[in-house]
## 1
Amino acid sequence: DTAVSQTPKYLVTQMGNDKSIKCEQNLGHDTMYWYKQDSKKFLKIMFSYNNKELIINETVPNRFSPKSPDKAHLNLHINSLELGDSAVYFCASSRPSGGADTGELFFGEGSRLTVL
Amino acid sequence: DQQVKQNSPSLSVQEGRISILNCDYTNSMFDYFLWYKKYPAEGPTFLISISSIKDKNEDGRFTVFLNKSAKHLSLHIVPSQPGDSAVYFCAASVVGGGADGLTFGKGTHLIIQP
């Protein structure tokens, strides 16, 4: 009974292709995120969605587009894949920080994308 | 610009001894700090946290210390066990910052030797 699940876990594709990674959380959280862990091992935030509204877009290329059909899902679409997009992408969810909530994140297992 | 820094990429500690992982931050707005643990092929999992109003938080074998004036925090694990071998990420946030998420360090790979 995984709290945050993402698919696929591994994805190998050619440059120029379009791909999607799906994420679902069953924690009832209001906010979902996409993080990218690149070859230098940094975990960097890409997007967050709160009640279907994009809150953050940290200078991510517009080839990346998050899609949230409902509060429990946040999918990541990537168009025209480039070699530099190869990374591990982590989905996460949280209650927004404030009051007693600290914004602790719950992560999925990650999706390793390899662009050839 | 790294707002959260973990300057040791790896750390090797003998089983039973104390492991000390360090983290420095530059953003004085951060007021909540967390440690995450990550095993290979898994997502990071929350380990322990500390608010800036405290200087110490303890949970079993894990203790986090915060030195606000030095903008430094550390995670102590004692005694270290083989299952503690993992990558540890330091993270920071601004409470009340809405859905800004967490800013992570680069991680320290802790290796517990038998």
## 2
Amino acid sequence: QVQLVESGGGVVQPGGSLRLSCAASGFTFSSHAMYWVRQAPGKGLEWLAVISSDGSHKYYADSVKGRFTVSRDNSRNTLYLQMNSLRPEDTAVSFCAKEGRPGSFDSWGHGTLVTVSS
Amino acid sequence: QSALTQPPSASGSPGQSVTISCTGTSSDVGGNNYVSWYQQYPGKAPKLLIYEVNKRPSGVPDRFSGSKSGNTASLTVSGLQAEDEADYYCSSYAGNNNYVFGTGTKVTVL
């Protein structure tokens, strides 16, 4: 079955960087757009970014545009999120999610916690 | 992009129905049929319940149903069960390859 496993979270100082990974299995990774979604502690879900199946198209939420970069390696079935210029308000659990039917996220990873604190 | 508006909480007794609203604008909920709903237990990943306003993925009980009128979408949980106690989020395509989630609703089974 579909499995998505995030890694790379941790504690980083404001202004620092982190690179998240999402290892995918159980489906044809190269055929699906992929998403990043985050959830601040005790808060709701926030869509961050989407990347097309071949990696040629990438779109971002205004809150992370210019600071975060989504990428993928279809040969390794892995999705990435490079997070730069991190701010305390970026503290959240970040989930990767698989494209389902249009506009839906039909499979999710367990999430990885990013904490931005001095 | 502003979050879609959901009531913070909703409740019902076992066997009853509860309906959760999700209000957006003509740029998101009212502008397309790509509205979906997710169930999330504390500390867990969200799970897709409804896509394209009113379609259920395989394995989702038919107690869960979705609808939309204008800029407001709704999720109805019929025949409430103890296991339905969770947080529920709506989501909509918002144009220009952007997506937006709702503020979330905590459902309590009394």
